[in-house]
Write a structure and sequence with these properties.
Helix content is 80%, strand content 0%. With 205 residues, it is an all-alpha fold.
């Protein structure tokens, strides 16, 4: 079993917490209040800009052509996600240039950027991977639900997003030292921050 698969398995409890969170179940059945989703979109747009910077730092620290090409492709994928958020912002009149990040958002972005800035590529991949794998998992598990938030669900259920998540997991397997316990600590921290992000968005605090 690959390292990425082991880490995902070992954090199945947090993935289940995310899937069962009322924010996510509200997306699935369409009962999530629109103002809560709008607040989430604003926070996620702020987060994704830092996520893109994390990819850019990983690209800069890549030791070979494989890493350069792969992280460049992943960076382009974040750009597509940001375009989705721009569409939501226009629909609901959200000014993404004036977003006030919640403490949970800042905790996550600070963690990502601090990890990526240190230059250990394996740890950077471990910090970035949970977001991608969890969103692919959620999109696929919610597919076919209520269509109120269907655009969001279809974005993350799309095979193209699964491919991006798989690419990042492959980079984790390539660059993380298998005997480095810190990799698992970083991965679990990112998973905890994912659940906290949904919770903060749901409660708008």
């Amino acid at each position: 079993m690959s390292l990425a698969a082991v880490l995902w398995r070992d954090n199945a409890d947090l993935a289940l917490s995310a899937r069962n969170h009322p924010f996510v179940t509200g997306l699935a059945d369409g009962t999530l209040p629109p103002e809560v989703f709008a607040g989430y979109v604003a926070q996620d747009a702020f987060f994704l800009e830092s996520f893109a910077r994390g990819y850019a730092l990983a690209l800069a620290h890549s030791p070979d052509r494989h890493g350069l090409d792969a992280f460049a492709g992943l960076l382009a994928g974040v750009r597509d996600e940001l375009r989705l958020h721009d569409g939501y912002a226009r629909q609901w009149g959200i000014d993404l240039s004036r977003v006030e990040p919640l403490p949970a958002t800042l905790a996550y972005t600070d963690f990502l950027l601090a990890t990526a800035a240190l230059g250990n590529l394996g740890h950077t991949c471990a910090a970035l991977t949970p977001c991608m794998r969890l969103y692919a998992h959620l999109g696929q598990s919610l597919a076919g639900g209520d269509d109120r938030y269907g655009d969001w669900i279809r974005t993350y259920a799309d095979p193209a997003f699964e491919e991006l998540a798989g690419t990042l997991e492959g980079l984790l397997d390539t660059y993380a030292a298998p005997d480095d316990a810190r990799t698992g600590v970083v991965y679990r921290r990112a998973m905890r921050l994912e659940v906290a992000f949904f919770d903060a968005a749901y409660h708008m605090r």
